[in-house]
Amino acid sequence: MSAKILIVTGDAAESLEVLYPYQRLREEGYDVHIAAPARKKLQFVVHDFEPGFDTYTEKPGYTWPADLAFSEVDPGQYVALVIPGGRAPEYLRNDPELRKIIKTFFDTDKPVAQICHGPLLTAAIGSLSGRRVTAYPALELDMQAAGATFQDAEAVVDGTLVSARAWPDHSRWMREFLTVLRAKAPVT
């Protein structure tokens, strides 16, 4: 049986930030599961920039089924965690079941990949204090308030935590995460 990786997300997650790691990690031979607040079809979104707008815009993206609900997750069954961005982390950080799941990965020093607004979840459990991270640039103050040192870079590796700013950084983010995975949790 191959090693399992968990992606935690919900409605309004950025389509590319869920589906790119899902496909890339499966390509490497990992068994990838998507968990959400409930087992249902999730509605992802597309964030992009339009001329004249001060920030990104949001449009409907792909739909995708969640494999399991947060309440069904046994973190011990997974070798790594992926936390996509989009708007989903803004409300998911309030889910006590999800906070317990994420905390388990940090407490056991398992690889965690986070991108864009995903670090709002790791900040919510106090796991960024003293770490180097990147995130969507508008979150720089949030990362500093969580005790992290923010770096505006394509990918930042701090031990088993690999973070990226947003979907344009996917290639570098996944290269760095796969380096960590091959050392800590290789496909068997």
From TrEMBL:
Gene3D superfamilies: 3.40.50.880. InterPro entries: C56_PfpI-like, Class_I_gatase-like, DJ-1/PfpI. Residues 4-178 form the DJ-1/PfpI domain. Belongs to the peptidase C56 family. This is DJ-1/PfpI family protein. It comes from Streptomyces mesophilus.
